[in-house]
């Protein structure tokens, strides 16, 4: 009789554990999946930097895989990481939105983190880096420094909020500015991006914003050769030439990942969509070129301060 009661009690304990929210409060191991490489010096490198920061802060083992793009590769990586005991998994890009949301319920002891995508499951967290404001101030800088009254944008996709912000900011600074916008329809097609840059240059633009993390470095290198100006993207790209890169629209996704890890480790992380901006120091402007006058730099700093206080970008009265 006693043995039977013990067996029933054990079964009830097992059943009571099913369907519960997984415990958040201790990072065991951390994994990160990259659709491309960690050596691009832009988006991939930023994500890898975030992974190393988490490793240092929590003294845990970390793992990463590059070139994980197909559904099959993503599923295999998730299963492999689950077997390794990883309980905090980052998918460094919107490419992981569908699969993470689809399979997350099969791995209730793992927290899945995606970027710039939508969370649709209980144990999926999405990191959103607000791009409109950084684009706005980048556009202001481009319009302020243009001598031909023509600037250009080489964007990846039409939905990019930083591109919309760039155009609005340029028009705010100079209503008469001409903005030539072209799209690659890909994040890292550097061949197409450089060809589009050549067209924009021929059409008169002297400041160009290459808003794609996989091709902005090759484009900036060509801009430097031509003696024109660029607005950097994702990272502070002043190291590409302080007389070429006027400033950069910086997204510190590594800091955002650190915030998510900290909340997870404290047991306070709420699954769902998390938004980061200038207030969090996740989004910021990069180093200004010495060519940009101090008065204008002070103007930008004041506008950013007001934006942080009001959540509203400036408008012409």
TrEMBL record:
Gene3D superfamilies on file: 3.40.50.2300
Domain ABC transporter substrate-binding protein PnrA-like: 27-316
Keyword terms of this UniProt record: Cell membrane, Lipoprotein, Membrane, Signal
InterPro entries tied to this protein: BMP_lipoprotein (IPR050957), Peripla_BP_I (IPR028082), PnrA-like (IPR003760)
Compartmental location: Cell membrane
Topology within the bilayer: Lipid-anchor
Family per record: Belongs to the BMP lipoprotein family.
Name the UniProt record assigns to this protein: Transcriptional activator protein Med
Organism per entry: Bacillus atrophaeus (strain 1942)
């Amino acid at each position: 009789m006693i043995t039977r009661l013990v067996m029933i009690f054990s079964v009830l304990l097992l059943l009571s554990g099913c369907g519960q929210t997984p415990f958040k409060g201790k990072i065991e191991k951390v994994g990160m999946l990259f659709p491309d490489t960690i050596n691009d010096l832009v988006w991939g490198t930023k994500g890898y930097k975030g992974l190393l920061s988490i490793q240092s802060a929590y003294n845990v083992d970390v793992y990463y895989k590059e070139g994980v793009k197909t559904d099959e590769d993503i599923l295999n990586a998730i299963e492999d990481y689950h077997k390794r005991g990883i309980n905090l998994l980052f998918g460094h890009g919107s490419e992981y939105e569908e699969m993470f949301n689809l399979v997350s319920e099969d791995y209730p002891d793992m927290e899945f983190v995606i970027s710039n995508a939508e969370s649709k499951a209980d144990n999926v967290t999405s990191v959103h880096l607000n791009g409109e404001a950084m684009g706005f101030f980048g556009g202001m800088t481009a319009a302020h420094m243009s001598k031909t009254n023509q600037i250009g944008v080489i964007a990846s996709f039409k939905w990019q909020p930083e591109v919309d912000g760039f155009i609005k900011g340029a028009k705010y600074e100079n209503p008469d500015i001409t903005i030539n916008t072209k799209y690659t329809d890909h994040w890292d097609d550097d061949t197409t991006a450089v060809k589009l840059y050549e067209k924009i240059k021929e059409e008169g633009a002297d400041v160009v914003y290459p808003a794609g993390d996989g091709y902005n470095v090759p484009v900036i290198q060509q801009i430097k050769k031509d003696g024109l100006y660029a607005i950097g993207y994702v990272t502070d790209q002043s190291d590409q030439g302080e007389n070429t890169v006027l400033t950069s629209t910086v997204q510190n996704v590594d800091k955002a990942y650190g915030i998510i890890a900290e909340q997870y480790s404290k047991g306070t992380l709420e699954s769902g969509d998390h938004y980061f901006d200038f207030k969090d120091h996740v989004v910021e402007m990069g180093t200004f070129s010495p060519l940009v006058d101090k008065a204008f730099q002070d103007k930008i700093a004041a506008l950013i301060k007001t934006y942080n206080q009001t959540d509203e970008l400036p408008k012409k009265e």
